[in-house]
Amino acid sequence: RDYKVTGVQTCALPISGAVDAASGAVDAALPLPEDYVRIEPGVFTMGSPGGELGRFAEEVQHQVTITRAFALKTTEVTQAEWEAVMGNNPSPFAACGGNCPIETVSWNDAVDYVNRLSDAAGLARCYDANRAFAGLGCLGYRLPTEAEWEYAARAGTQTAFHTGAITQMVCDPVDPNLN
User: Fold this and answer.
1) Number of H helices, E strands in the chain
2) Which of 1, 27, 44, 104 has the highest CB neighbour number within 10 Å of its CB?
3) Of the candidates 106, 117, 139, 119, which has an alpha carbon nearest to the alpha carbon of residue 17?
4) Residue 42 CB contacts under 8 Å (≥ 6 apart), including other chains
5) 103 SS3 class
6) From start to end of 19-170, where are the E strands?
7) CB 90 within 8 A of CB 105
8) What confidence tens digit (pLDDT) does each residue in 18-60 have?
């Protein structure tokens, strides 16, 4: 499978003492890296309501509690960011330019990317050589969990996007709430 690497995030910040070692929570008093935002813990309804456009049958709604704050990148990983860390640009849309999102990379590639971010920042890797996840207490860069990603994307709303519901199932025209 290919994935767009979006919202690559970290539990830890590349600042000594930024994370409480016991809870793994990001210290609110310390600055975040550029392009990251602090996401506070909270409770939300995960999954899509029955009538939502694009809903899959297995998307049963259920309550989820995010127990610790985390930092999330506010934009997709760009082709330039990927190339600076990985030394290549696998995008078939490389002509789009360095500010365009990286795409067509595997989950394994994304894990290698965040491990290299951790290495560069002097942080622990969150995935071992077999790409097994070290857990939420890991103090290095990692991918967001499905629940963390959905919690952040909904941004306190009950709709598919923080800007509203899905109105278009095709790319042309672009859904105004997604755009």
Assistant:
1) 3, 6
2) 44
3) 139
4) 65, 66, 151, 156
5) coil
6) 36-39, 42-46, 62-66, 70-73, 141-142
7) yes
8) 455 555 555 555 567 888 888 889 999 998 888 888 888 888 8
